[in-house]
Specification:
Blueprint: E1 3-8, E2 12-17, E3 22-26, E4 49-54, E5 63-68, E6 72-77, E7 82-86, E8 101-106, E9 115-121, E10 124-129, E11 133-138, E12 155-157, E13 163-165, E14 180-183
Antiparallel strand pairs: 1-2, 2-3, 3-4, 5-6, 6-7, 7-8, 9-10, 10-11, 11-14, 12-13
């Protein structure tokens, strides 16, 4: 197996081989108090994997990029689809809810978009589209919305450095924690 890309989270690692298969290894569950559950290895369970194991739910898809954070993972498939799995608190998986996904699930709000790259932060995810737009989801402060929690409609980063409602963009869900467009480069405050 020849590894072509990889990502490391706090509790796990992901590797992609030259055929586009994804392997994961590490801890599958981190909470000892039952506050949140794992699943960031993508095998449909909470089991620890001490050796790399192929993620069967992505079999037949050519994965070209991965991202890993402490409690969730992202996989970018050739053609631009994005899959997420792991802990869902804070909306970090991009499905418009806070449910955990123990196996990869396609982020439907990005259907039809041509994603070129993915990134995962502690409580959020980001993706860059081939046309230069950037989408983000998860906790508001981590995505640059200025606070930690809240219900946000689809928004666009305006030229004055503030967010504006973007109802005409025809983009995504208007639910909290769903992917939203961020147009870069933004005018950042000085």
């Amino acid at each position: 197996v020849r590894v072509v890309t990889m990502a490391g989270g706090e509790h796990h690692s992901l590797v992609v081989d030259d055929s586009g298969s994804v392997y994961s290894f590490g801890g599958g569950e981190a909470s000892d108090r039952g506050e949140w559950r794992g699943g960031w290895l993508g095998h449909g369970n909470l089991d620890e994997q001490l050796l790399p194991k192929r993620i069967e739910a992505l079999k037949g898809k050519r994965v070209v990029g991965v991202a890993a954070a402490s409690r969730h993972s992202l996989a970018l498939v050739d053609g631009g689809s994005v899959y997420s799995f792991g802990a869902g608190d804070g909306g970090r998986l991009g499905h418009g809810d806070t449910r955990c996904q123990w196996a990869p699930k396609r982020i439907q709000a990005l259907a039809g978009e041509s994603v070129a790259a993915v990134a995962a932060g502690e409580s959020h995810g980001l993706c860059a589209l081939r046309d230069g737009r950037v989408f983000g989801w998860g906790s508001g402060g981590a995505v640059g919305l200025g606070d930690r929690l809240g219900d946000y409609p689809a928004m666009r980063f305006g030229s004055a450095g503030n967010y504006e409602n973007a109802p005409g963009d025809g983009l995504l869900s208007k639910q909290a924690h769903s992917p939203l467009p961020l147009h870069f480069p933004p005018s950042l405050p000085e």
